[in-house]
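Most newcomers find our protein records easier to grasp once they have seen one. To make this concrete, we reproduce a full record directly below:

…
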Amino acid sequence: MKVAHVGDIHWGLNYPGPAPDSRFKDITAAMDWVADRIIEEGCKLVLVAGDLYKDARVFLERASTEIAAAYNWLYKLGSAGIETVVISGTPSHDPVAAYELSGVRSC
């Protein structure tokens, strides 16, 4: 069985850069490529080892964008029949509420 491992994605807005969302767009594009590669390689399981988000302080004006990006990535993998396990990371990066809104079930 092929297993993919990713971690420290740090999805978030307001990184330093030419625009507040430029780094977010880079991360999203990179993770779309990663998902495509995982699917192409025929992985059956993905382990996300924490720090899915940049900041646990989820601000209302950014939260929907950040959570939607993570949700869409997880949904893409799930739609391809790939089981995905997310391990909560650093408390300063991974808010439990954001995981719940992203569709991640805790166990």
User: Anything to note?
Assistant: The chain has one domain: 3-101.
